[in-house]
Amino acid sequence: VQLQASGGGLVQAGGSLRLSCAASGRTFNSPIIGWFRRTPGKEREFVATINWSGDRTHYADSVKGRFTISRDNAKNTAYLQMNSLKPEDTAVYYCARGLRLMATASNDYIYWGQGTLVTVSS
Question: Three-state SS across the chain?
């Protein structure tokens, strides 16, 4: 499975961005999608996850109410809509796929994309 994350960029605080994660390959064996982020000097941090059907989601407390994860299985693409962005949301965002439902640990994910940089200016 190959994952390609896109949609990052520079945005002012309070603005919005939508990240996309396009998958190719044998995606049926990794139905769970997660988004993580990493800032320099910190561990990779869980952001959000979604199940195959899209009716179950889970978010980190730091993004709850501002970010929305979704997916379009017909397009093999997942999304992370990010609203009310804050400077502390600045990070490289990664999408990942795995098997464990509602997983928040990076070790639970098997396949990873290359990351897309989000920079939020104050």
Answer: CEEEEECCEEEECCCCEEEEEEEECCHHHCCEEEEEEECCCCCCEEEEEECCCCCCEEECCCCCCCEEEEEEHHHCEEEEEECCCCHHHCEEEEEEEECCCCCCCHHHEEEECCCEEEEEEC
